[in-house]
Amino acid sequence: MKSINKAMEISAQTTRNVLQKTSISLAAALLALLASFVAGPNAALAAAPQHHDQQAGFYRLRVGDLEVTALYDGTGVFDPHWLNGTKETMEGVVKALHADPHTLDVVDMGFLVNTGKQLILVDAGAGTWWGGGALGRLAGSLRSAGYTPEEVDIVLVTHLHSDHVGGLTTQDGNRVFPNADVYVAKAESDFWLSPEIAAKAPKDAQPFFQSAQAIAAPYIRAGKWHTFNGSEPMVDGMQLVPLPGHTPGHTGYEFSSKGQKILFWGDIVHAQRVQLQHPEVTAIFDIDQTAAATTRNQLLARLARENVLIATPHTSLFPALGRLHKEGSGYSWAPVVFTDQWDER
Ligand SMILES: [Zn+2]
């Protein structure tokens, strides 16, 4: 009797389970059907909204004992009319732009070197001085990388174009890096900060002079604006590399540590996908076109030969670090590939 009861109990339980399962799968089927009416077949029940913000832009790597952090300032479009090349080369550029309108897009970057003793910024991005709002992220990238502008001890400036120094100063004339000493080549400072030279400059060059003067002013007032002639030791393990042409005092900074080197080369290249294959192509911003091309030709050859790590403010590839390889009559770029790992060696 007991066992019959048990058997009936089990059978009732099984029936309940089956019914339950059936009703669950029936409900799921109904919901899926409903969803397909609302959003089309195979759509998720609720569409995930798109997100259009990006991750903050910094990337660090080790160079000997140095921690080098590439700091993203923004991305801009480079106009092909800003390039001077042969008819044939420029036709190639136009063709490349037809295939890919982003061929000449460039990032703007600054770089932070933590030597363990000093925090050194090389170029400061555009701040609010380049217009358009596509640039000026550097201070945010610096914070994302775990530092504050107040911690920066030294700013080394490759040249005084506002996409490299705009980030130093706010529009109302305040220093963004209040504790930093700024270093720039004397030839560079004398050129852009001279009212006489500015007065004689063509009209479309005037904004470059005005911004350089406004950006430098609060550092000069605070006694934090320093110029060098080319040989003074300013930072241990750092060598000045004069690279005149783009601007009169355009300067690279080469850091060495434990046999490794990195060169912050400023505006040696603007349109990477053109000028590495055609180093003779200049930019209309080059104050001395001939000198700019000569400097580029000599430097690219040396860097490819010595396999030096290069930090470039303008490239189409974040994090804007890489090496040069000789390729045909020009060079190819071997980029440092982004990784979220720190080299612990
Ligand atoms: Zn530039």
Question: Would you mind describing this structure in some detail?
Answer:
This protein is an alpha/beta fold and 345 residues long. It has helices at 2-39, 87-99, 138-144, 162-165, 186-192, 195-200, 206-221, 272-275, 289-306; strands spanning 58-63, 66-76, 83-84, 106-114, 119-122, 154-156, 181-185, 225-228, 238-242, 251-257, 260-264, 282-283, 309-311, 321-327, 330-335. It contains nine helices and 15 strands. The model is unreliable at 1-5 (pLDDT under 50). The protein binds zinc ion. Zinc ion (ZN) binds at residues 161, 163-164, 267, 313-314.
Features:
15 strands, alpha/beta, 6-stranded mixed sheet, binds zinc ion, disordered N terminus, 7-stranded mixed sheet
